[in-house]
């Protein structure tokens, strides 16, 4: 609590009382604390690729290297700079989302069409160890959504499914109309929705880590994740974009067997469809 006290004077400037204002600043303090934490996490995360870029360029400037070594160092610098650039893009995206500056451009859109549009990009990400299964019934009703954002949501989840199943296996994208609430779901909105499952047969996520997945910068801490590389921001952005649509996201997983991300998105109403 913050206390402010001001004397109250009459016309003759005599103090006749005091005005005391009691303000609850707990929430303000909490936000300040969160901001400070965020800045310190961001600085730390940006420093990691920067340290590596500086280290390798110093090395390259210090002396001559065989072309093959040189090539390797330059490649590392390039990869780390890319990582840095992706992180900055993600951070900008997140801060725009936080500030409410991202407006949805919602239309009646067909998931069939969006999925067709992303398959080319997806096929490029797949290794020969992966099989992609797309299961969407002909009669799935259109959703009321921002097409570019839905494309971003699906590519984020599918690229994670591929990234975090380094041994390959099936990556599935399954779409249904939501009729009964699947196990593990949070409270869902009442409106008619589609449910999208993105399922992989990869490394899985421990029960302990599942609730932390959508926290900014969270990355599961193991040697494989460290090798795979990433910013830990993709899922926070994905979740914010889904919630802007009034949808929900959650995950179920078995360590070592695979993970499923579930997403609900609202179906376009008759009114919007006739719109
Ligand atoms: P990034 O992939 O850049 O690290 P994300 O926010 O997309 O960031 O994901 C956060 C973390 O969640 C990842 O680092 C990874 O540890 C875990 N994760 C995400 N998707 C999967 C998945 N399909 N299978 C296993 N772990 C996953």
Automatic annotation (TrEMBL):
It comes from the Bacteria. Residues 41-269 form the Histidine kinase domain. Transmembrane segments: none annotated. This is histidine kinase. The lineage of its organism: Bacteria, Bacillati, Chloroflexota, Chloroflexia, Herpetosiphonales.
């Amino acid at each position: 609590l913050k206390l402010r006290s001001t004397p109250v004077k009459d016309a003759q400037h005599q103090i006749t009382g005091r005005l005391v204002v009691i303000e609850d600043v707990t929430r303000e303090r909490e936000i300040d604390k969160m901001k400070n934490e965020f800045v310190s996490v961001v600085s730390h995360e940006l420093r990691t690729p920067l340290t590596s870029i500086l280290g390798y360029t110093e090395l390259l400037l210090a002396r001559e290297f065989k072309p093959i070594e040189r090539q390797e160092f330059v490649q590392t610098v390039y990869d780390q700079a890319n990582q840095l650039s992706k992180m900055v893009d993600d951070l900008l995206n997140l801060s725009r989302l936080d500030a409410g500056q991202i407006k949805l451009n919602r239309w009646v859109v067909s998931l069939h069409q969006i999925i067709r549009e992303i398959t080319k990009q997806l096929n490029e990400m797949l290794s020969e160890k992966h099989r992609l299964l797309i299961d969407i019934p002909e009669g799935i009703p259109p959703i009321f959504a921002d097409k570019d954002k839905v494309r971003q949501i699906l590519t984020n989840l599918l690229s994670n499914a591929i990234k975090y199943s380094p041994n390959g296996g099936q990556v599935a994208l399954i779409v249904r109309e939501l009729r009964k609430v699947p196990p593990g779901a949070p409270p869902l909105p009442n409106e008619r929705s589609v449910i999208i499952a993105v399922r992989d047969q990869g490394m899985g996520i421990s029960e302990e880590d599942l609730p932390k997945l959508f926290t900014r910068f969270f990355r599961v801490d193991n040697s494989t994740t460290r090798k795979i590389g990433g910013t830990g921001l993709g899922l926070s952005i994905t979740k914010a974009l889904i919630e802007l649509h009034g949808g929900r996201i959650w995950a179920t997983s078995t360590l070592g067997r695979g993970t499923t991300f579930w997403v609900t998105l609202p179906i376009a109403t008759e009114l919007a469809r006739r719109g």
